[in-house]
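ENCODED BACKBONE
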Amino acid sequence: WQVQPTGPTIQGIFEEILGEICHEKVVLIGSGRTDSGVHALAQVAHFSTSHGIDLETLHRALNAKLPYDVVVLSAEEASEGFDAQKSAKRKTYTYFLWHSDHKSPFLSSFSWRVWGDLDLEGMQECLDMLVGEHDFASFKAADSTAKTSVRRIEAARLQRVPLRDIGNSLMGLFGLAGLLPSLGADDTFHPEEGGPALIAITLQGPGFLKHMVRNIVGTMLEVGLGRIGVDGFRTIFEARDRTQAGATAPAWGLFLVRVDY
């Protein structure tokens, strides 16, 4: 998200386009930074301008100029004093694991593939111990500059979405539900409970450390794969030592789902 000395960024692209539309230099402030490769379903950002422009016109103009993989969902005038970053009360992140023996050409850019038996109950136990205010030093990035590693997790849950449900959701999303009734009538392809599925790991709280969610997922997966137990995860959590935790999960499986104000 954030402007960098080299390479394109979402913030940089927006500021360039907004500068063209508003005929002045514009600084865009997002609700928070997202690492390269992380997705955002509902990032929130604000800017100030002295250039009068209709909001609907602004909305259309931005989407006409933005690249194919970035879209503005809405544009509205904010109340005085609103700050996309400082006014945020809660953020929700979801990390997707693709649990399958085979890679998916459709999901590989949005999930981290894992295979073999997964102890989902053990992984949920790990999430349960994260809820509340704790020191998350074991899960912060090695180069984190945060003044404190204490954060509060308000909710943490794990959900398993079978392949069949993913297909149904996509059909509905693209308005294709009902167009292929033969698929619904054919009982020859019904994934078993243990078949391919997306595992959604969702964390919700006022703020997160750099790489915090990805480091939690990488360490939880060690429990899921049976390499360490739930007690081992607890020991790592309480150690407040990043070197004891698991690998950082790849960026492409993480989504900023929503920001609440």
Observations:
- Residues 180-192 have pLDDT under 50 and may be disordered.
